[in-house]
Amino acid sequence: MTALYVLDVPENTPLATVAAADPAVTVGRIGPYFEITATGPIVIDRRATGCRHAVWYSAVAGVARDSRITQHDKDALRVEPT
Amino acid sequence: MTGLEHRVQGVDHAAFPTFDPAGTVRFYRDVLGFPVVHSICAAGWGPEDHPDFIHFFFDIGNDDRIAFFYYFGLAPVHDQERGDVYAGFGAGVPEFFVRSRHLAIHVADEADLLEYRRRLDGSAWPVEMQIKHETIESIYTHDPNGYMIEFTRAMRPVTPQEDLDATLTIDALLDVVAAPEPTFGKLLARKAELIVERAADWEPAHAESRR
User: Fold this and answer.
1) Is the ipTM value over 0.90, yes or no?
2) Which of A30, A72, A77 to mutate to test the interface with B (most CBs of B within 10 A)?
3) In terms of Cα–Cα distance, which of A14, A51, A33 is closest to B135?
């Protein structure tokens, strides 16, 4: 299980929207956080989110211990099961 | 939450040494329009060979103040090219570290930010950088003493959930730095645990924004 947490503030909502477009990904909530989960990898395309760099590189609130970020650059955020 | 009542009322003053009081007054009073609101003329005293000095203050809004010390007869304390008159840095210190310490002054909106940009750009200390992203817009320059000064405005009000997020970040950070070899990855893993433990029951303590 891959799990990624993103705080629900206006500039972060495109990340959840783009993530949810993948049918293998589930976007739920824990309090004010989006809980983005999948059995396999979670991949979010930066350009699809429209996020500029300051937000893009500070949008991740948490990554579950059994997951890890394998890519976080100008193209994409990729979180995979360990 | 610490349970301690939060009684303080902002910055009384932040103080910095200067070797260039004329430039400092030009920059803060004449270019930026910050009123001179207080000064102390003091003869040197004390166990050290303390020089006579002038301690002078400018209002930076909200009754908060920036203050300077000018010491008569004191020569610059270092000759490093990087840094400011207080602290100099050699070639081995990374630029991001040298540029980390700064004073950010809050303005209400874009019109006010651009007004300070206009004042600086017409001076000997023009804006060096203007940065706008989804949450803030800022301009930066260095004052005559080399101190980095920022003017910043919020692009949107701070939300209550950002207070929760900051609390979880700090709790996660304290856990991670208490163990060997802290990393960003370890922080995000610890913070994920705290989100699962604590975020579901969170309710905004106050719905109104603070700024």
Assistant:
1) yes
2) A30
3) A51
